[in-house]
C-alpha cells in the first residue's frame, strides 16, 4: 500500500531527528511521497532545499496566517521567485486563523488575499489553513473564480455541508489525525459522506498525531492510521483509500 502525505512539516524544530532521517523512515514504511509545507519565507526556502535533496519530497511556499504580521514589503516577489523551482507544487499554507490571533484579522485577510491573487496569477494550486474563521474565509474565496489548478482545505474540521459547498467551488478536502479521534464527529461524518474522489489525506506532522499515538509527536508514516480510519468509516479497503487519495493528490499538485 503506497500512501502520500499531502501536508507535513518534517523540518520542524520539535523533531530530534533530521528531516532526511524522517523522510527515509517514512519511505521505508510505505509513504510514496510527501509535501513539506512552508509557513513563512525562511521555512519556505528550507522546504525547497530539502525537496532538492530528497526526490520524494515536494515543497509548498507561503505565509501562514500566524506569520502574516511578518510579511514585509517584497515578500510576494520572493514567493514568486521560489515558485520557479520545479519541486515547488503549491502556494501554502495560506488562510485565516482566529484561534490565537498572533496576527490581527485585518493583517491576516490582507496577506491571504495577496497570496491568493499571486496563486491565480501563477495558475498555481494552493493550500488553505482555516481555523475559527469560516465566514471571512468564504467571503474572501468567493470573490475569486474557481481555482485554475485546484486547491485544498487542509486538515478540514468543518461540517459536511461546508465540505460540499467547497467541493462545488473547486476545492479538495483533506483529512488528518483528528478523523481518528473518538469524539471527532465532524471529520468522521465528512469521511463518511464525501466521495473519495474529493479527499486527500495528511498528517500535518509534527502536530495532530492520530490515535493510537495521540499526544506524542507525529510523523508522515502515521498517515496510514488516517487512511485506515477513513477505510473503516467508508467500509472500503485501506488499499483503495490510499490509491484514490494518492491519485487525487498527484492530480492536484501535478506530481
Description:
With 255 residues, the chain is α/β, with parallel strands linked by helices. The protein has one domain (3-253): Metal-dependent hydrolases (TIM Barrel, Alpha-Beta Barrel), CATH 3.20.20.140. 40% of the residues lie in helices and 18% in strands. It is built from 9 helices and 8 strands. The protein has helices at 19-28, 41-53, 75-82, 105-122, 134-141, 160-168, 185-193, 223-234, 238-253; strands at 3-8, 31-37, 57-61, 88-97, 126-131, 151-153, 171-175, 199-201. Strands 1-2-3-4-5-6-7-8 form an 8-stranded parallel sheet. Helix 2 (41-53) runs parallel beside helix 3 and helix 8 crosses helix 9. It is globular and about 50 Å long. The chain starts with a strand and ends with a helix. Its EC number is 3.1.-.-. This is TatD family hydrolase. InterPro entries: DNase_TatD-rel_CS, Metal_Hydrolase, TatD-like, TatD/YcfH-like.
Amino acid at each position: 500500500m503506497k500512501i502520500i502525505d499531502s501536508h507535513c512539516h518534517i523540518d520542524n524544530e520539535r523533531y530530534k531527528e533530521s528531516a532526511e532521517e524522517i523522510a527515509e523512515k517514512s519511505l521505508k514504511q510505505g509513504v510514496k511521497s510527501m509535501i513539506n509545507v512552508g509557513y513563512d519565507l525562511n521555512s519556505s526556502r528550507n522546504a525547497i532545499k530539502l525537496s532538492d535533496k530528497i526526490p520524494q519530497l515536494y515543497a509548498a511556499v507561503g505565509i501562514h496566517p500566524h506569520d502574516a504580521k511578518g510579511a514585509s514589503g517584497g515578500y510576494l516577489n520572493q514567493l514568486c521567485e521560489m515558485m520557479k523551482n520545479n519541486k515547488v507544487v503549491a502556494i501554502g499554507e495560506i488562510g485565516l486563523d482566529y484561534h490565537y490571533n498572533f496576527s490581527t484579522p485585518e493583517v491576516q485577510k490582507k496577506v491571504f488575499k495577496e497570496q491568493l491573487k499571486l496563486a491565480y496569477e501563477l495558475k498555481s494550486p494552493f493550500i488553505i489553513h482555516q481555523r475559527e474563521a469560516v465566514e471571512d474565509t468564504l467571503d474572501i474565496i468567493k470573490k475569486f473564480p474557481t481555482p485554475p489548478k485546484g486547491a485544498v482545505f487542509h486538515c478540514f474540521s468543518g461540517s459536511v455541508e461546508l465540505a460540499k459547498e467547497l467541493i462545488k467551488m473547486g476545492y479538495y478536502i483533506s483529512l488528518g489525525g483528528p478523523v481518528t479521534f473518538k469524539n471527532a464527529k465532524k471529520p468522521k461524518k465528512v469521511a463518511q459522506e464525501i466521495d473519495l474522489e474529493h479527499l486527500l489525506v495528511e498528517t500535518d506532522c509534527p502536530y495532530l498525531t492520530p490515535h493510537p499515538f495521540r499526544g506524542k509527536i507525529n510523523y508522515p508514516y502515521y498517515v496510514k492510521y488516517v487512511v485506515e480510519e477513513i477505510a473503516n468509516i467508508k467500509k472500503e479497503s485501506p488499499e483503495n483509500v490510499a490509491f484514490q487519495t494518492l491519485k487525487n493528490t498527484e492530480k492536484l499538485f501535478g506530481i
